[in-house]
Design goal:
The complex is a heterodimer of chains A (260) and B (398). Chain A is of the alpha/beta class and 260 residues long. Chain A has 6 helices and 15 strands. A 9-stranded mixed β-sheet of chain A has the order 11-10-9-12-8-1-6-7-13, with helices on both faces. In chain A, strands 2-5 form a two-stranded antiparallel sheet. The longest helix of chain A has 17 residues. The termini of chain A are far apart. With 398 residues, chain B is α/β, with parallel strands linked by helices. Chain B has a 7-stranded parallel β-sheet with strand order 11-15-10-5-8-9-16, with helices on both faces. A 5-stranded parallel β-sheet of chain B has the order 19-18-20-21-22. In chain B, α5 packs across α6. The longest helix of chain B is centred in the N-terminal third of the chain and has 17 residues. Chain B starts with a strand and ends with a helix. The chains are: A alpha/beta (260), B alpha/beta (398). At the A-B interface, β3, α3, α4, β9 and β10 of A face α1, α5, α6, β11 and β13 of B. β11 of chain A pairs antiparallel with β17 of chain B, so a sheet runs across the interface. The structure holds flavin-adenine dinucleotide (2 copies). The site of one flavin-adenine dinucleotide (FAD) has 27 residues of chain B, from α8, α9 and α11.
Chain lengths: 260, 398
């Protein structure tokens, strides 16, 4: 079974903060990490290979330094890695990202399953997984929390919904996006770390994936980020300390006035 | 050529752009901004920061939808589950009406499902001028492929200028496919929507970076403009039984209903009766609950307030509650009217999932717990004492 895992390098958003005084983004010392949801995608890919055999290829579209996340993926058990990197990709919105990733996946060609994270923690759109599936014209199962069975070219999986889950079955090749509940990612092994160090990372530019230039980067992106600003700060709260009964009474009194 | 340019003559090296760049792509060298193109994503934050000097410019050459002015009207994707129109559809309808009135265009809803036709009238009462109904037993389950195919076909035929779709698991999965099929822009998870009346495009505002920043997204040259909209942010449209509108049943041949994926089973596992993304009040518990039994106490409080129970990841990881109740970065994003956090410290990964709630109440015995920084009200104390008191007091007054 050949699996392609799509991962994204993201700034650790838990460290991206707004400076309360200057109102600027503070990102001094903010690390770049593998998008947390993609860690589950990597783990699931590796587990499936361990069970069914085959190969896991990890891909990312990003700047040259995104190579680091590919090496991390290899240390966690992925076999091959491709960095899709070209200035022509800069400014890609999800439509252009889906197109670019799909062209790379088409070039890899022999695949049964594409695995994406549920969403990236920077762009936060959750659009790339289903968008890639649609570009490749393959079926999808989004928000997968468990793969129940893979048999006779069919995959059966539990898809998390607002109320619970659905059991969905489809033919492969297909694309799934995964949520945190699907597994607990392993830590890199020593052997994995060594392999990651020496691994040769394939780099593909726009020309290598046979892409139509008008569908890449800024040019291929119908959306534009027009303005970025900080959310209004929450007003300072009222904190009650002391006798619990007294605190509760005061709080309920205030809430009553707010008519909730 | 598309790209970013720094005008050296205008740049004074003030470093405002450097600070604004979310990707650390700008450095100041010899009092001039220098952009590392390997890091730059052309997001435009620096252009915004440099409004005073206008020393940075991003030129975008882009394709355009032909006959762009022929696209008229605002649509709402009226999501239904098990034949019931979801309240989020009414929220979007309220917003769509407001935008359409500004643009002086009609509002239409698309209602897809099985046995849903008699629900269309309600959409008219709530502000739709027209409802396209696609009713077929094969559409009983919400399947991505047929739903996307039908939407794309209707859009090509009727050419609306904008479509609002709920940012639910279903909505996001379907509309992402539609956007790709039509090659148009899709803005995710909007919390604010407005229009530029001169050029007739939407101003779509949404949180990104886990809610740490807000971004306004435009899709000036492509129609329709697609947006998913977060639940519980817009006000629900109120029904007016006197409103008139047209219901059009659109028939499709069987090829449209084909799906390579099939749903074998649907399982609802929400423990309390209310799903947390729908709830107006959420009572959440964290690691301090100490075990599943203590969540019973939260359920009692939730019941009095007609709310649902949520949990931090720490509590979920312990197995005290099912994952569908997790609030936060790797769980659900919620924005109820009231969020009560009990024994939750308020780590950023939890905050990003609930910080847009209208009112946040924190109960924690540690006065320096970060949850108090986002709380409108807080009680410093032992939750095992405070929660039952709170339940009792609410029972008395409600
Ligand atoms: C503030 C801000 C707001 C934005 N808002 C929008 C918007 O509303 N609409 C829009 O179209 N674009 C938007 N973008 C652009 C968008 O972030 C990029 O297109 C990005 O490349 C992909 O989107 P995402 O980060 O949301 O990924 P998601 O769709 O959330 O990612 C889902 C999964 O897709 C895979 N994936 C995503 N990116 C890559 C990659 N580069 N390489 C390999 N796999 C990947 C991963 O498996 C990931 O887990 C925005 C950008 C910024 C900075
Ligand atoms: C990639 C990533 C994703 C994550 N995603 C999520 C997510 O989606 N959601 C999420 O919640 N977390 C998430 N986390 C975990 C997050 O960082 C925190 O570890 C978690 O939120 C802590 O849960 P907690 O507040 O319940 O526990 P703790 O941090 O242990 O806090 C317990 C609190 O209870 C208080 N307390 C103890 N006893 C009592 C008592 N008797 N009465 C009153 N107060 C008491 C303590 O003072 C303390 O403040 C994520 C982490 C990572 C790295």
């Amino acid at each position: 079974m050949n699996i392609i895992v799509c991962i994204k390098q993201v700034p650790d958003t838990t460290e991206v903060r707004i400076d309360p005084v200057t109102k600027n983004l503070v990102r001094d010392g903010v690390k770049s990490i593998v998008n947390p949801f993609d860690m589950y995608a990597i783990e699931e890919g590796v587990r499936l290979r361990e069970k069914h055999g085959g190969k896991v290829t990890v891909i990312t579209m990003g700047p040259p330094q995104a190579e680091a996340v590919l090496r991390e993926a290899i240390s966690l058990g992925c076999d091959d890695a491709v960095l899709i990197s070209d200035r022509a990709f800069a400014g890609s919105d999800t439509l252009a990202t889906c197109y670019t990733l799909s062209k790379a996946i088409e070039k890899i060609k022999d695949y049964d399953l594409v695995i994406c994270g549920k969403q990236a923690i920077d762009g936060d759109t959750a659009q790339v997984g289903p968008g890639v599936a649609s570009t490749l014209d393959i079926p999808q199962i989004t928000y997968v929390r468990k793969i129940e069975e893979i048999k006779d070219n069919n995959i059966t999986a539990e898809r998390a919904t607002e109320e619970g889950y659905e059991v969905v079955q489809t033919k492969m090749p297909c694309l799934i996006t995964v949520v945190k509940e699907i597994n607990t990612p392993r830590l890199p092994s020593l052997k994995g770390k060594m392999k990651a160090k020496s691994a040769v990372i394939t780099v593909w530019k726009a020309a290598d994936i046979n892409a139509d230039e008008s569908r890449l980067g800024l040019k291929g992106s119908p959306t534009e980020v027009w303005k970025i600003f900080t959310p209004p700060p929450r007003p300072k709260g009222r904190i009650f300390e002391g006798d619990p009964q007294e605190s509760v009474n005061q709080l309920v009194e205030l809430l009553k006035d707010l008519n909730h | 050529m598309s790209g970013i340019t720094v005008y050296k003559d205008k740049c004074i090296g003030c470093a405002l752009c450097e600070k604004a760049c979310p990707f650390a792509a700008i450095t100041i060298v010899d009092k001039k901004a220098v952009i590392d193109l390997d890091k730059c994503t052309l997001c435009g934050a620096c252009v915004e920061a440099c409004q005073k000097f206008r020393a940075i410019d991003i030129v975008r050459e882009t394709t355009r939808t032909p006959d762009i002015e022929k696209y008229k009207g605002i649509w709402v994707f009226a999501e239904q589950r098990k034949g019931v129109i979801q309240s989020v559809a009414y929220e979007l309808l309220g917003k769509a009406r407001e935008l359409a009135d500004k643009l002086k265009v009609p509002v239409a809803c698309v209602l897809i499902g099985s046995n849903v036709k008699d629900k269309a009238q309600d959409l008219i009462y709530r502000g739709a001028d027209k409802v396209y109904v696609i009713d077929n037993p094969k559409l009983e389950h919400l399947l991505d492929e047929p739903y996307a195919r039908i939407m794309a076909n209707l859009i090509r035929k009727y050419r609306p200028e904008a479509i609002l779709c709920p940012a639910t698991a279903m909505g996001r999965s379907v509309i992402s496919r539609v956007a790709v099929q039509l090659r148009v822009g899709l803005t995710a998870d909007c919390t604010g929507l407005d229009v530029n009346l001169d050029e007739r495009y939407l101003l779509q505002t949404r949180p990104a970076f886990g809610g740490n920043i807000m971004a306004t997204i435009l899709s000036k040259y492509h129609r329709p403009q697609l947006a998913t909209v977060r639940h519980k942010v817009m006000k629900e449209a109120v029904p007016d039984p006197k409103r008139k509108g047209e219901i059009e049943v659109v028939n499709f041949d069987n090829s449209f209903f084909a799906s390579r994926a099939k749903i074998l089973n649907v399982v609802d596992e929400v423990m309390t009766t209310i799903n947390i993304t729908e709830a107006n009040v959420i009572v959440s518990g964290g690691r301090a609950m100490g075990g599943p039994a203590a969540f019973k106490m939260l359920e009692d409080l939730a019941k009095v307030l007609n709310g649902a129970v949520g949990a931090s990841r720490a509590a979920i990881d312990e197995g005290w509650m099912p994952y569908s109740h997790q609030v936060g970065q790797t769980g659900k994003t919620v924005c109820p009217n009231v969020y009560i956090a009990c024994g939750i410290s308020g780590q950023i990964q939890h905050l990003v999932g609930m910080q847009s709630s209208d009112i946040i109440i924190a109960i924690n015995r540690d006065p320096s717990a970060p949850i108090f920084n986002v709380a409108n009200y807080g009680i410093v104390g032992d939750l095992f004492t405070v929660v039952p008191l709170l339940t009792k007091r609410f029972k008395e007054v409600l």
